[in-house]
Amino acid sequence: MGSILQCMDCGQQYPINQLIYTCDHCGGLLDVRHDLASVKHTINRELFDARLGSNPSKTPYHSGVWRYKELVYPDLDEKLIVTRPEGNTNLYRFSSLQNWVGSECLYLKHEGENPTGSFKDRGMTGGVTQARSLGMKQIACASTGNTSAALASYAAQAGLRGIVFFQNSNVAIGKLAQAVAYGAMCVRVDADFDRNLELVRELSIELGIYVLNSINPFRLEGQKTIMFETIQQLDWNVPDWIVVPGGNLGNSSSFGKALCELFEVGLIDKLPRLAVIQAAGASPLYRAYQNGFEHFESMKAHTVASAIKIGNPVNYAKAVRALRDTNGVVEMVTDQEIMDAKAMIDASGIGCEPASACSLAGTRKLIAAGIIHPSETVVGILTGHVLKDPDAVVNYHSNTMEDVVANHPNLLHDVGDDVQQIRTLLKSNLA
Questions:
Q1: Strand locations in 316-422, DSSP E?
Q2: pLDDT (tens digit per residue) in 374-406
Q3: 332 by DSSP, 3-state: which?
Q4: pLDDT at res. 205
Q5: For residue 60, how far is the Cα from the chain centroid?
C-alpha cells in the first residue's frame, strides 16, 4: 500500500491524488496516511542526520520539510516539489526566560525564521506541491495574515495564481504587505476569518480553485515536520512537553500525528505531552477541554494575537485526538499575559509576533499551577517573526494598548536637537 487519504471518523479511504478536503461519506476530516510498515525499514536516525546541512544542489533534502520526505510524501516525484527551502529553524535557550517562567530546561523553537517569517511555510510547501501534483492553476486561502504571506510566496514560485481572503479590519500590516508584495490577488471581506474560510471553500468548488487552509491535509504533513526537526535537534531525545499556540489548531493536530508516527517507526521510544495554549478571547478548545470535550461551542474571537483570532477552528477534532494521544492539556492566557511574555521574548533578542508568546505565557502558567514540573524539559514553539505585527510592539512599549498595561516597557525618548539635553538623558539612563 502506498500513501492514501483516510477519514479520521469513518475510515473511508481515497486515492492520494483525489481532489478532496473532507470525507464524501460523513464529512469528517482527512488524514494523509503512509505505509509506515514499509517505510520503517528504509529510514533511521542516521539517514536524516546525514541530510542535515545538505548542499542546496541536493534539493529537496536541504529543506527542513523534505529532509523527511519518506514520512511526508514518500512516493512523490521530487520534480514536483515547491521549496524555498523552509525549516531548519533554531532552538534557543535563555536563562533569563527560564527564570521568568520557573523552568530549569526550556527551549524555544523559532518558526519565525522560515522564509516568509512563520511556520506556515512548512505547510505551504506541502500544500502547493500537492496543487502542482494535481495540475491546479489557482490556489486560495482565508487568512489572518501568515497563511496569506506563505501562499502568495509559494504560488509565485510555482507559477500559480494566488488568491487571499482577508478580514477587512485588524489584519497586521506586516502580513498584508507580504501578500501584496508577492503578487497574490488580495480580497478584503467584511467578515471574520471563520466566515472567510466558508466563502473560500464554497467558491473553490465552483471556480476550480485549490484550497490551502489547514483543512487541507497536505498542509499538516508539512507542519508536522516541526516535531521531526525539534526532536532531531535534541539528538533524538524526547522532551517532556511541547507547548504550542492554538488557533485553527493545525499545528496541534499535526504535532500529534508526527509524534505518533515517530513512535510507530521506532525513531522515538515515548511521546511528549502536548500543551495547547489559546488566547482567552479565542478559546473554544480550552472551553471544550474544561468539559472533557463533551461539548464544543464556537465563539466570536477577539484578541491582540491576530494569528490565532479564530473562534471556530476547523481542525478541532484532530486537535482533540492529538491531546488524547499525548495525554495533553489545554490552557488559556489573557492578552496581558501574552504581551508581557512577548516583551520578555523580544528583550532576549529573538523576538516574536504576539500569538507566539502564548507558548511562553502558557508555560509560565502551567508551571505555576504545578502541571509542568520545573525540572521537566519543555519546548515552546514560536510561530511567527517579530516584524509580522510591528504595531503591537510599538503600542505595547508606548503603553497605548487597550486593556493591556506595559509591565516591561522599553520607553521611547523624545528630545530636541540639543546636545546637552541628549547628554543629560544618556547619563541618567546609563547610570
A1: 329-333, 378-382
A2: 999 999 999 999 999 999 999 999 999 999 999
A3: strand
A4: 85
A5: 22
Cα–Cα distance list, 76 to 71, 135, 159, 398 (Å): 11, 14, 19, 51
8-state DSSP, 353: -
One domain for residues 99 and 25: no
Would you state the cell numbers that stand for residue 2, as one nine-digit string? 502506498
Residue type at position 381? I
Q: Is residue 329 part of a domain?
A: yes
My answer on whether omega of the bond before 60 falls inside 30° of 0, hence cis, is: yes
Q: Whose CA is closest to 308, among 413, 383, 243?
A: 383
Domain limits for position 279: 91-117+219-397
List the Cα angle 118/348/227 in 5-degree steps: 40
204 in any annotated domain? no
In a domain, 9, yes or no: yes
Report in angstroms the alpha-carbon separations of 400 from 84, 339, 391, 393, 404: 38, 12, 11, 11, 8
Tell me whether residue 169 is in a domain: no
pLDDT at 1: 61
What domain count does the chain have? 2
Contact 99, 344 (CB under 8 A): no
Q: Which residues of the chain have pLDDT under 50?
A: none
Range 403-408 contact pairs with CB under 8 angstroms and sequence separation of 24 or more: 403/335, 403/336, 404/304, 404/335, 404/336, 404/339, 405/336, 406/339, 406/343, 407/336, 407/340, 407/343, 408/340, 408/343, 408/344, 408/347
How does pLDDT run across 303-348, given as a tens digit for each residue? 999 999 999 999 999 999 999 999 999 999 999 999 999 999 999 9
- The answer on 7 and 95 residing in a single domain is no
